[in-house]
Amino acid sequence: MAGKIHGYYAAATFADAQIGKVLDELHKLGLEKNTRIVLWGDHGIWTKPTNYEQATRTPLLFIAPGVTPPGSVSKQPVESVDIFPTLAELAGLPAPRGPQPIDGLSRVPVLCDPAKIIRDPASHCYPRGPFMGRAIRTQRHRLVEWKLPGTDPLETQNLAATQPKIVAQLRAMLARQPETLVKPPVGPAEKR
After folding, report:
1. In this structure, is residue 107 part of a structural domain?
2. Is residue 12 included in any domain, yes or no?
3. How far apart are CA 107 and CA 80, in angstroms?
4. pLDDT tens by residue, the chain, 192 residues
5. For residue 13, what are the contacts with CB-CB under 8 A and spacing of at least 6?
6. In this structure, is residue 64 part of a structural domain?
7. pTM
8. What dihedral do alpha carbons 171, 173, 175, 181 form, nearest 10°?
């Protein structure tokens, strides 16, 4: 195990050195004023065995010349899913769309004004044994709840008849999903 951890830290040190080289080269070429940079890192803890600060707090840096005030810092909760919509907006692209809703929120308003709040709280989860740890993090507090997921984790009971409103909501959500493009298998009577 000690060798793996040593390798992990060595890889982080090597990555840091390479980032420095890339930033130096951008500066030499005069491209730093027209380049958007995102540096998204790891928390530096071997594996991610918890829902607590030491495993969920990770560095996230945006350099967006002309957008971010130089040297500005925000202490707001952010989620990794926010990176994609932020980059799309910084690139002048439309908000990302997919077959399912994108959970991320663009951080551009915060990049312009570090005091602006767009997400409070951030959330995450991590399983441990049969329990699921769900957590939220505000600027000041964290709440972690450990519980057995669902009342029927093996899905042995059909609850549709007892929860018609939920079934209607779920059917409406499903109807908004794209239709499948895969043809169903051909049965023996249909073969030619």
Report:
1. yes
2. no
3. 11
4. 778 888 888 888 898 899 999 999 999 999 988 899 998 876 666 666 777 776 777 778 898 998 988 889 988 888 888 999 999 999 999 887 878 778 889 999 999 999 998 888 888 888 888 888 888 888 888 888 888 877 666 667 787 888 889 888 888 877 777 665 555 555 555 544
5. none
6. yes
7. 0.66
8. -120
